[in-house]
Amino acid sequence: MIGNSRIIKSNQADVHCDLIKLLDRYSNKPFQRQISNQIVESFLMLDDQVKKHKMPIILDSGCGVGESTLSIAEKNPNNLVIGVDKSIHRLDKNFSSKVKHNNVIFYRTNLIDFWPLVNQYDWQVQKHYLLYPNPWPLKKDVKKRFHAHPIFMELIKISNVIELRSNWKIYLEEFSLAFEHVAGCKSKVEIYNPESAVTPFERKYQSSGHVLYRLLIQHEG
Q: What is the tally of helices (H) and strands (E) in the chain?
């Protein structure tokens, strides 16, 4: 799979024309989703672990096999790094099964359920990573992107520092515009050339000659 990844193709050449309209709709109506008792109980068990660590939190949302989570944990030994992914197959694969750090927790759940609970239970998240999320590049699929979904109103409250990476510039430009529109904080998309890849996707895209982009948002909340 290394070195043969195709460039993202989309019938959308710029920021989606409906993005602001969608955000205004979501901001006027609180995100309402029924979270099952089972999911809440599972989260409370995780919350107990988090409290026992007594360390500032870094979230790695959509961590896949967990390579990025372990890399972040190694660079931030004084933080509790939590890698979250909805796929047990990915979490059981490769890197997440080789935890050697006492500041790492892997947790399986749907981010749409997880993020509201993070806010409800008042986690103090120092930094939030979203590395190479599914871009849903077709124009008709815009509502599946995090920044064009009602969950965005929960996402922006999690941390004052958010880092996204993608090989589709439009995704990051949309996220930046969405954040500025809702929270009034400007940010700039930049070309990113990692010295060493921290996810399998980053490694594959870099080996395939893709231009990689990063968006770092720092705001006062």
A: 8, 7
